[in-house]
Amino acid sequence: MNKLLKFIEKNKAISWVLGFQLFRLILLPFMGLMPQDAYYYLYGQNLSLSYFDHPGMIGYILRIFTDVLGHSIFAVKFADFVITSLTILSFYKLASYFLSKQKLERAFVLLASTIFISILSFNSTPDVPLLLFWTLSLICLYKAIFEEKKWFWILGGIAMGLAFNSKYTALVLQIGLIAFLIFSNKYRKLLLSPWFWSCLIISATVTFPVWYWNYQNDFASFVFQSSERTSSITKFEISPKNFFGAIGHQMFLLLPVLFLIIVTFTYKYIKRALLKFKIPQAKTLFLLAFFIPTFVGFFAITPIYWVKLNWMMPSYITGIILAGMFISKKLLKTQIIISIIFHVLVSIQILFFLAPIKSDDTWVGWKELATEVELLQKEYPNTFIFSDDNYKTSACLNFFMDDKIYAQNIIGKNALHFDYLGDDLSTLNTKNAIFIDSDKRFKDKEKKGELNPELQNYFTQITELKPIIIKINNKEERKFWVFYCTNYQTKK
After folding, report:
1. Whose CA is closest to 168, among 216, 198, 211?
2. Cβ–Cβ < 8 Å for 320, 110
3. SS3 391
């Protein structure tokens, strides 16, 4: 015990990080299935070179963990926890190249205390592997550039390729690398180096599966990720709500102290560059090259486009290292206190679900819904199940039920990767179905009282059944409308 106490006293930063991670690990078994968990689990159960809305890395990871640990919510969550823990360790290694021991410890605690690390540890998204390979890419590029270890150009190319195979925003890695070399007087000559070009070529080669899948499927994923967003941005409609919403999201993910430090040094460096034409020294420039494009770039479009809360996450890696250069011991203590308060509140919500969540983006009720739907199938035998909310209800029911669950492609709508599972919907002709429709706002226990007109184009008769009411801790928390649909007919 005395040795343990001495270790804690001597290594306070490591103790804080281990404390936060132990807290997350203890909370893990109490987390229910999120729709994102179920959807990317579906990726892993339907292996492909890539997928409609994202590359497949998160799906491959979930497939490995569930094959080894078995089909369970814990196996899915544990995969996220392990990969994020590796990201934390990789961050420590990367930060050690730029910071003194004292500042390194502060940056290490800053990272571990954030809400975004908790989200990544609990929720399956492409950002989970993205941040790991993003951090590994920067480690390799640092060694290749600053330590002149040539083979790390090769490893860096592989890591950047794997980051892209996690999420398309990893393309900013190549952009950041090129920007750094262009603006660095000392290292600009590397633009002509065969090792630099080998790095880029290798990174592109590693991404080949994603490109080939898109080629086979009329570049559906690239079109999906770009066309709608480009159209919204080009409309140039100013929305203060989007801007202040982005600030609120980032302040929540990073917590106020860290967010304000990041905003402060960002303003400082940009002002110095624009007004005084001063370029930071090489190592600081390296960190900024992989921070500014993502953080400032996405913030720049928030007045005209709704930027999702996770899009800026890759910038946090070098952003927090930079923050470690500026944060004082007093501010770090404030950050830790705020973090503890937030994490305690989150744990209370997870354990006791005190505040209702009026959304399908929740971890409660999905398993109970699957049980109720299975009972419905016994009452209405030989029916197939489908839903119409992009992926959430369908993916969650797919996770908990043995039968195949369908999405809104049943009624002729685009259904994300459900459209690419190879289903021949004509085999369902003449069959009856049960349609599940989530009541996100849940104000009463009454039937919906109206029919989805699109259902009537595919079924002979639709009858609304008694809604499914899900109780959590003996309180009615979720509601699903149920419709019995007869004689399905696909449209050619």
Report:
1. 211
2. yes
3. coil
Residue 100 structure tokens: 């003194």
What average pLDDT does the segment 464-480 reach? 92
CB 383 within 8 A of CB 401: no
The span from the CA of 40 to the CA of 35, in Å, is: 9
Mark out the alpha helices in 306-465 (DSSP H runs).
313-326, 329-352, 366-379, 392-400, 453-456
Q: Is the pLDDT of residue 74 over 90?
A: yes
pLDDT at 340: 96
Q: Enumerate residues 6+ apart whose C-beta is below 8 A from 205.
A: 157, 161
pLDDT at 4: 47
Do residues 32 and 72 make contact, with C-beta atoms less than 8 angstroms apart? no
Total residues belonging to the chain: 492
State residue 13's pLDDT score. 85
Q: In the predicted model, is pLDDT for residue 10 greater than 60?
A: no
User: Could you tell me the two tokens for 204?
Assistant: 């592109």
Residue 313, pLDDT above cutoff 60: yes
CA angle 194, 200, 204 (to 5 degrees): 140
Contact 171, 314 (CB under 8 A): no
Question: Rounded to 5 degrees, what are φ and ψ at 467?
Answer: -65, 155
Cβ contacts of 150-154, under 8 Å, gap ≥ 24: 150/195, 153/195, 153/196, 153/198, 153/199, 154/198, 154/199, 154/202
| Tokens standing for residue 173 | 């890695």
Q: In whole angstroms, how far apart are CA 382 and each of 123, 173, 267, 429, 430?
A: 34, 51, 63, 12, 11
Looking at 8-22, 57-71, 80-94, 450-464, which range is the least confident one? 8-22
Tell whether the model's pLDDT for residue 462 goes beyond 60. yes
Beta sheet of 461-472, edge-to-edge order = 405-406, 383-387, 432-439, 475-486, 461-472
